[in-house]
Amino acid sequence: MGLAGCPPPPPPPPPNNNNNNNKPSGHKSACVPNSTERRRDELSEEINNLREVVIRQSEENSNLQSQVQKLTEENSTLREQVEPTPEDDEDDIELQGAAAAAVPSTQTEEDCPEEDLPEKFDGNPDMLAAFMSQCQTFMERSTRDFSLDRVRVCFVTSMMTGRAARWASAKLERAHYLMHNYPAFMMELKHIFEDPQRREAAKRKIRRLRQGMGSVIDYSNAFQMIAQDLDWNEPALIDQYHEGLSDHIQEELSRLEVAKSLSALIGQCIHIERRLVRAAAAAARKPRSPPRALVLAHHHHHHDPTEPVGGARMRLTQEEKERRRKLNLCLYCGNGGHYADNCPAKASKSSPAGNSPAPL
């Protein structure tokens, strides 16, 4: 009973469980890992953010380096354009000289007036020959120095406008060697702007051209005018010019040294013609020799069978009379130019008593 009246004993402790035994400590450590993990996550996120910032900065630096490299290359290119090579520098100097020649200053207006400049060429084929001739004449007569091909090319291009100027600019940019070769540049100019039919017509004209009875100067002027429309070389022009000369000029040329240029050949022909003209004028000034009849008359006069012998004139033979009549000679003295009625020999031998008896 007593036992029955006693309170019941306390319940036995739960079985030993590691999880349960560690439960209080488990609750205590649960807060610590959460804070550490959160901090770790925060640090990891910051690291990732920094890494992204560094990556972006690296990319920006790389872009900046590319831009700097590109700017450096562009700067080098610009320097090459702004600071030309010595050869280009010479071209610039000559371009300035050509521009000065194209637009004369007030100090040289008298030497090179503006109206003497060639007319601007716009690409019209009909004006090409005149333009090329005017440019050549201007450069030959100008007091400026056009001895360099580059200066000559620059001057010609400065006289172009419109389509012709655009062609020259593009052509010289693609083929810079033409700047240093004036004949080649002018040949290119002719090939582009001259009329092909005009060239064929010029070929026909120059092959038909002959000096004839005209002067060498007139023939040479006509020849050179036609030759402007041709693309023949110097030997071909020389051969054609020689073929059209008169025979007497060609004969004189055969005794001289062969000319090496057309201008030299023209000079030779002009000199030959002037020499022949002077010789003809000198021959015209000389007294003419008497006609053959007079010479015969004088020759026979010395053996005139009618010459007086001992003061008396001999009778003419019938043969002598016939001869004098045929030659229209005087029957008295045997000379020509008069007849016996007015023979001067009678007057010189006349006496106060009268004339000598006429021959029978």
Layout of helices and strands:
Elements: H1 2-5, H2 18-21, H3 23-82, H4 86-102, H5 128-141, H6 149-158, H7 162-174, H8 182-193, H9 196-208, H10 216-227, H11 234-243, H12 247-253, H13 262-285, H14 292-301, H15 318-326, H16 344-349
Helix pairs in contact: 4-6, 6-8
Q: Could you describe the 3D structure shown?
A:
GO terms for molecular function: nucleic acid binding; zinc ion binding. The longest helix is centred in the N-terminal third of the chain and has 60 residues. The C terminus is likely disordered. The chain has 16 helices and no strands. The protein is rod-shaped. 62% of the residues lie in helices and 0% in strands.
